[in-house]
Amino acid sequence: MSTTSDVATAETARGQSASHDVNAGRDWSRSLWNLVILAGVIAALAISWGPAEMGRWTYLFTDSANMAEYASGFLRPDFTDWRYYLHEMIVTVQIAVWGTFLSLIVSIPFGILCAHNMVPWWVLHPCRRLMDFFRAIHEVVWAVLFVVAVGLGPFAGVMALFIHNTGIMAKLFSEAVESIDPRPVEGIRSTGATRIQEVVFGVVPQVMPLWVSYTLYRLETNVRTATILGVIGAGGIGQVMFESIRGFYYPQASAILIIVVATVVVIDLLSQQLRKFVT
Amino acid sequence: MTAIAVEKLSKRFGKKQALAGVDLTISEGEMVALIGASGSGKSTLMRHICGLERGDAGSIVRILGEVQQQDGKFGPKMRDLRGKTGVIFQQFNLVARLPVITNVLCGILGHISPWRGTFGIFTRAEKRAAIESLARVGIGEVAWQRASTLSGGQQQRAAIARTLLQRSKILLADEPIASLDPASARRVMDVLADINRTDKLTVLVSLHQVEYARVYCPRTIALRDGKVVYDGPSDALSDDFLTELYGSASEELVLPQRLPVKSSAGKAPASSTSGARQGRELVPA
């Protein structure tokens, strides 16, 4: 509907442009496209309303007492076993550290191989599809697969983080590579450098600040994800937390949650300092 | 011996014919200016000669007698020839976040073992050579600063230092002074002229402003719409002839600020005659 009326406006405007030159050379198809995209977004939201059961939003208010009752269990955290919780929290961080490190090593070459300004299409597309595949499967699913292969425990968690996170970091890295200034790279190329040297001296220095920041951000995310992986048997604090929630030990669960939040905050603060140091 | 030989070089970008059958030959040791209005094909020609762009079918570029590209394909000695042709660009093309000395050291990547180059392991002697070439262009003291902290003129001289370390036989300068103030521009042109004279490098420099061509380069090649429209002594390029060649576009070539040549006139080759000529011709214009 809006489309037809818009075409009409476009035509009247074109008719006037002979007398008023302000719109001469204006590309009306762009304005039209903007409207089409807007209509598309609104349509997608409308179609999804029912299946997502968005109509239940009223329960947030009518049944809020249930939530309050449940939450009250968390109000008195019980830190009696804090040494144990802390130990498990450190295991979770260690899972995240190894998962992030392995994916960092693999994402550096794949970040270059997935950038359209670096490689021909027949390298680009296979690499991108492989990364899509790594990324499309959730860490939890990867973890279940690796539990089957390497058994229950932290190593399955490391592998799950490694694979999924490689898909994400390679994409983020390649986007940084695609936005570089090509001129310094040409400067290096003009000296007779090899392709790899062009990357080392021309590309890497330009993307380094972004790559560092993405890696630190992913480390943070991986600490949170590693917590969840504990729930399905990959060890660490998640396993302890899941057991206390399942056993209705809310004060203990509450203490664990506080430790998780505090850890994420500490990692965020540390990574901010690191970022300042590197850039 | 011929340094650069270009035959029937054509290049089309979509609808635009950027180069239409360019033929030119430059002998070793020459200093040649390439002039033309914006969009006349100067940069495109430069990018073909330094091997960053490939021409259409029928085009041949020879560097120092070796085929660098033919029919849109790079020859087998491509990388070696890139090493022999140093290039400096209008926007300097230094890696801003690296120290100046590392930028300069990139010049020898074509000469040392690929493994050592890739890991950035440079010997003490190589580093000393880099600092010497920086000193040669007058900025030895900035070696360990990040390239981004340098002024435009300093960056351009660092880029020249890189080509010096590259020990290239040919120096291509694509609009090297277009982004610089007049004083820096003159200093950069002085360095280029000095390299041409003392190191016997062949220099091809594309310029926006004919004044510099008259002062520094004995020979000028002029482009219009991707074709060579003049190739001869810079002295013979009068303002009237330029107007005839470029019509209204000649304004951007001739009219820019009067070149403060007087101080450098003594240093530059072929400057006494052209300097006088320029003084005479600019008055009526």
Strand content of chain B: 15-25%
Could you name the ranges of chain A where pLDDT drops below 50 across 5 or more consecutive residues? Answer: none
Helix and strand element order of chain B: EEEHEEEHEHHHHEHEHEEHHH
Taking Cα atoms only, what radius of gyration of chain A do you get, to the nearest Å?
26 Å
* Broad shape of chain A: globular
List the chains of the largest interface with their residue counts. A-B, 19 and 36 residues
DSSP summary: helix tally of chain B: 11
Largest sheet of chain A: none
Tell me the radius of gyration of chain B: 19 Å
CATH superfamily of the largest domain in chain A: MetI-like
Distance between the termini of chain A: 51 Å
Considering DSSP H and I runs of 4 or more, what fraction of the residues of chain B is helical?
25-40%
Strand order of the largest sheet of chain B: 7-8-9-3-10-11
Query: Can you count the beta strands of chain A?
Result: 0
* Oligomerization category of the chains in this entry: heterodimer
CATH topology of the largest domain in chain A: MetI-like fold
Helical fraction of chain A: over 70%
CATH class of the largest domain in chain A: Mainly Alpha
Can you give a write-up of this model?
The complex is a heterodimer of chains A (279) and B (285). With 279 residues, chain A is mostly helical. Chain A contains 12 helices and no strands. Chain A is globular, with a radius of gyration of 26 Å. By secondary structure, chain B is of the alpha/beta class. Chain B has helices spanning 42-49, 78-84, 100-105, 114-118, 124-136, 152-165, 182-198, 210-216, 239-246, 250-254, 271-282, and strands at residues 2-13, 16-27, 31-35, 60-63, 66-70, 73-74, 85-88, 170-174, 202-207, 219-224, 227-233. Chain B has a 6-stranded mixed sheet with strand order 7-8-9-3-10-11, sandwiched between helices. Chain B has a 5-stranded antiparallel sheet with strand order 2-1-4-5-6, with helices on one face. Chain B is globular. Classes of the chains: A mainly alpha (279), B alpha/beta (285). Chain A binds chain B through residues 183-184, 186-194, 196-197, 200-202, 205-206, 208, and chain B through 50-52, 79-87, 89, 91-98, 102, 106-111, 114, 117-118, 120, 159, 162-163, 166. Chain B: This is Phosphonate ABC transporter ATP-binding protein. Chain B: Residues 260-285 are annotated as: Disordered. Chain B: Belongs to the ABC transporter superfamily. Chain B: Keywords: ATP-binding, Cell membrane, Membrane, Nucleotide-binding, Translocase, Transport.
